[in-house]
Design a protein that fits this description.
Blueprint (H helix, E strand, L loop, with lengths): L1 E9 L4 H15 L7 E8 L6 E8 L2 H8 L2 H11 L3 E10 L3
Length: 97
């Protein structure tokens, strides 16, 4: 299992737009559209509403790669959400238990 933790900081005044794009992505990933995506949870910082943490779990590396190739990822995240960000950090993990 592959875990991806992403932190997105929205540009000033763009946090609600970022939230909407991430909400759409979450709805898509948590549907049957991506069977290899086991969990996609979007969190918004309570002290800084511009800061988002996304917790994702994928069945394997192939499922993670397939996720990045979906039209939803390319159109919603790459084309719409990421241009609204001040910063984006990602880290990859493996479940050990």
């Amino acid at each position: 299992m592959i875990v991806l933790i992403a932190q997105h900081i929205a540009q000033e005044g763009k946090d609600d737009e970022v939230a909407e794009h991430l909400r759409q992505m979450s709805d898509y990933c948590n549907s049957d559209a991506e069977p290899g995506c086991l969990t996609y949870i979007v969190n918004r910082n309570t002290d800084n509403p511009r800061h988002f943490l996304i917790y994702e779990q994928y069945a394997d590396q192939a499922a993670l790669e397939a996720h990045a190739e979906t039209p939803m990822f390319k159109e919603t995240l790459l084309a719409r959400e990421i241009p609204l960000l001040e910063s984006r950090e990602r880290s990859f993990w493996r479940v050990i238990g």
